Amino acid sequence: MNGEFSSRRRPLGRAERPARRDGGQGRGRAGVSAGTSAGLSAGLSCSHRPPCPGCPRFAEPGIAPNAQSQLDALARAHGLPEVRAVPAAAETGFRLRARLSIRGHIGSPKLGLFELGTHRVVHIPNCRVQHPLINHVAAVVRRALVETNVSCYSDRAHLGLARYLQVVIERSSQSAQVVLVANVSSPEPLAACFDSIRERLGRDLHSLWLNFNREPTNTILGPEFVQISGPESVVEHFGGAAVHYPPGAFGQSNLEVGARIIEHLREEIPNGARVAEFYAGVGAIGLSILQRTASLRLNELSPHSLHGLALGLNGLEATERGKVEVVPGSAGSASAMAEGVDVVIADPPRKGLDGELTRSLAESPPERLLYVSCGLEAFIADTARLTASGRLRLIGLTAFNLLPYTEHVETVGRFERVYRK
User: H/E/C letters for each residue in 288-355?
Assistant: First the structure.
């Protein structure tokens, strides 16, 4: 659509906080191989370090030593062996999702990450961990901003238009979902910029979006999206049904390792089990394990993720769709959803489980609880609460190096119900 804008606007659900840079593995039309599958190498170098803070452990192998120590201590406390982390699939180009800040002057914008503790942007045109197409998109957007004289946002003055760039790569098409976050109230001030982006990206462009963010805040995404062109969601597969990611929905950054986590969970679910999943998002886990289940209850709060989940459910055969019940709202308010099921899956945000859900699971535990954690400290605290009554016990720990070169570790804990004599 040249010069035309869809009137499709989408409200934002939970506030989107400034996030780490994201991405994935593959090969983009921008021309460079997206990653290597060898063990992580200490011979890597990065032209943006310092001062780029994105990879504090750049080129270091494995998960962070502190995370390993914490996991091993937790394992010992529950009579389990030392935890071995599932390694990353690639050492470069593995991040398929990026949020880049846009700051600077008209004619010389910088796209990258804030230096720690500042609003000074480190320009990262040659990021080693981002998929090459993300770097290409950032270069195209930067050129479009320059050629159309679009101003960059100033945090101090709350002036300027371009604030952030979000890019998500769809693996099957090797094309980019592009979102420009701007301090505007309509698309018109950016019309020429959008035309330039569409023309230069060509078939590398999956879809183009505008997100309105007019508030003087560090929140990245504003409350509304406008679809400029292209499909309404990125589509991925993880060994099951299609999974849809609208631009406002949460998605994992490293999909190769994400797929390994889903496969691990699939193997932990008995055939014919009744399953309930809390914090289900767009259904990346739930839709991918659906064929193994007799019934599946899915809980999610975010409207954008619920929209993506609805798109995925709409693509199912009637018999599979009939197995699924969606329970919108907070996990705590939906805790009764765990009653009468065999397996509960919980994949909460970094802060951990809702208190009401934790209490419910501890007092009336399912046969099996699979807890997918992206916040190790919260997971350790939740484990203590879940096992305090003696009705649940931790019987398995698996770690995944989802975000190499960071302090982050993704952990899957398997809990089982204890029957008292």
Answer: HHHHHEEEEEEEECCHHHHHHHHHHHHCCCHHHHCCEEEEECCCCCCHHHHCCCCEEEECCCCCCCCH
Say if residue 28's pLDDT is above 80.
Answer: no
Q: What pTM was computed for the model?
A: 0.90
CB 168 within 8 A of CB 184: no
Q: Which two tokens stand for residue 171?
A: 């693996």
Query: Which ranges in the chain are annotated with CATH 3.40.50.150?
Result: 65-86+236-417
Buried/exposed code over 147-178 (b: 16+ C-beta within 10 A; e: otherwise):
ebebbbbebeeeebbbbbbbbbbbbeebbbbb
331 closest CA partner among 370, 373, 377, 276: 276
Q: Could you tell me the pLDDT band of residue 380, with boundaries at 50, 70 and 90?
A: very high
- Model confidence over 253-307: pLDDT tens digits? 999 999 999 999 999 999 999 999 999 999 999 999 999 999 999 999 999 999 9
Q: Return d(Cα 271, Cα 266) in angstroms, integer.
A: 9
Span(s) in the chain for CATH 2.40.50.1070:
9-40+92-230
Distance CA 201, CA 51 (A): 29
Q: 9-40+92-230 adopts what CATH topology?
A: OB fold (Dihydrolipoamide Acetyltransferase, E2P) (2.40.50)
pLDDT in tens, 151-185: 999 999 999 999 999 999 999 999 999 999 999 99
Q: pLDDT at residue 7 above 50?
A: no
- Rounded percentage of the chain residues whose pLDDT exceeds 70: 90
CATH classification (class only), 65-86+236-417: alpha beta
CA distance 229 to 271: 42
Q: What DSSP state is assigned to residue 29? A: T
First to last CA, the chain: 69
